[in-house]
Amino acid sequence: MESRVIHGRGGVGRDNEFGAVAPPIYQTSTFRQEGPGRHYGYEYARTGNPTRAALEELIAELEGGERGLAFASGSAALATVLMLLEAGDHVLCSEDVYGGTYRLLAQVFSRFGIQATFINTTDVSQVESEFTRAAGKKAGGRGIRMILVETPSNPLLRVSDLRAIASVAHRYGALLVVDNTFLTPYFQRPIALGADIVVHSATKYLGGHSDVVAGLVVAREKSWGERLQFLQNAVGAVLGPQDAWLVLRGIRTLAVRMERHAANALAIAEWLSQHPLVRRVYYPGLPSHPGHRLAREQATGFGGMVSFDVGDGTVAERIVTRTRLFVLAESLGGVESLICLPARMTHASLPPERRARLGITGGLIRLSVGLEKVDDLIGDLEQAMTGETARIERGDDHGH
Questions:
Q1: Using CB atoms within 10 A as the burial measure, which of 54, 97, 173, 217 is most buried?
Q2: Choice among 52, 67, 204, 318 that is catalytic
Q3: Is there a single domain that holds both residue 193 and residue 55?
Q4: Whole-model pTM above 0.85?
Q5: ω before 342 within 30° of 0 (cis)?
Q6: How confident is the model at residue 41 (pLDDT cuts 50, 70, 90)?
Q7: What is the mean pLDDT of residues 233-238?
Q8: Reduced to 3 states, what is the DSSP secondary structure of residue 148?
Q9: Which residue of the set 98, 102, 282, 283 is catalytic?
Q10: Cβ-contact 228, 217 below 8 angstroms
Q11: φ, ψ of residue 246 in degrees (nearest 5)
C-alpha cells in the first residue's frame, strides 16, 4: 500500500508526452475533436478530464473496486450514490453518523419518497431484524435496497462488523455502502469485507491538508460504476482538475500521515483516559473500547479521531476555546490538529432528542489529531483543561 499510494497501477496520471513526474493539470472546459463526434478520449470536462481520471483510477486501485468517481464534495458523492434509489425504496443507516448524512436522508431524499431508518449497526441482530421486518411488509414499497454504514462512526467511533452486515444485506438483495472517510483504504478496505460501494469525503485524510473540498466513490462492480458515472455526468457535481490534483498530491503521503495520525491519537486517548476531568474516551485503539477486537480484525489501524466527554457543555466550551495548537474548527484529517463540539457544530442538524439518545452530549469533544509532536498536543490539552480541574478541586460550580 505504501508504494501504491504513490505509483498506483503503473504510474498515476503518467505524462507520456513530456515525462512530467507529477500528474499534469488539464485546466480546460472542453477538448478539440478531430471530426464531429471523433475525439481523443475526452470531449467535455464535466464528462471527463484526464486529471480527474487519474484520481478516479487511483482511488479504485486503492480500494480494490472496478470504478472510481470524483465529486465536488463528500456530500455530492453520497447524494449521487443515493440517486441509485427510487421512490418507495427504504434505506438503513448507522444512527451515529455525520450530521450532513443525516440531513441528506431525513430532509432531502425523504421528499422524493425514499424512507430512511437509523439503527445501531454495531448490533448485527438489529440489522437482521430490520431486514426481516421490511421483507414482511414489502407489498407497500420496494423494501430495503441499501444500508449505509459509517465505521468507525462520527463522532462516537463505534465499530460495525462489515462482513456480517454485508452477508445480511446481500441475502436480502440490498447494497452495502460504506463511508470509509475516517480510516481511508490505507487502514481499511471495505470492498474486501463485502461492501458494494465505498464513499469518501476526500476533503479529509485523502486530501490531508485542509485545502480542498472533494468527494470520491468506488464501486465494486463495473455495472454499478457505469450507473454512477451516468449520474455523475447527468447531475454534474464533478471535481475540477485543480482540486483533483490537490487530492492526488495528498494521497502520495497518505501512508506516512495515517501512521502518524494513529500513533498520536492513541497516545492522546491513553492520556485522556487517565485525566480526572474526563468521563469517557471514545477511541477504537483502546482495549477498553467495545469495538476494539473487531477493529483489529477488519482494519490495520485505528485512525486519528478521538472523542471524549467531560460531562458538561459549559466546561467543554471553555476547554475548546483555550487550546492553542488544536484549532477550533469543523472538518478533520488535515496535518493540523482540530477540536470541536459535535453537538453544536458538526452534528447540530440532528434533533436534540436524537443527539441525547446517541450520547452526543454538550460535554462531548471531538479531536482530529494531527501530525504535530504528540507531547506538544498533550501539553496543549493539559493547559486547556487545568483550569477546569482546579475548579473541581476547589468545589466551584463548573456548569452543572
A1: 217
A2: 204
A3: yes
A4: yes
A5: no
A6: confident
A7: 97
A8: strand
A9: 98
A10: yes
A11: -65, -40
Per DSSP bridges, beta strands 327-328 and 305-309 are unpaired
Same domain, residue pair 206 and 335: no
Catalytic annotation, pick one of 46, 249, 280, 296? 46
Out of 96, 179, 196, 312, the active site residue is 179
Q: Catalytic annotation on 171?
A: no
Task: Pick the range with the lowest mean pLDDT from 38-42, 77-81, 215-219, 225-229.
Answer: 38-42
Distance CA 116, CA 89 (A): 9
What would the mean pLDDT of 293-319 be, rounded to a whole number?
A: 97
Domain membership of residue 399 (yes or no) is no
Same domain, 72 and 150: yes
Q: How far is CA 234 from CA 108, 180, 216, 336, in A?
A: 19, 25, 17, 36
Helix/strand/coil percent split, the chain, to 5: 40, 15, 45
Task: Verify whether residue 89 is a known catalytic residue.
Answer: no
Catalytic residue check, 98: yes
Alpha carbon 195 to chain centroid distance?
15
How far is the C-alpha of 385 from the C-alpha of 234, rounded, in Å?
51
| Structural domain containing residue 242 | 4-252
Catalytic (active site) residue 293 = no
- The per-residue pLDDT for 123 is 97
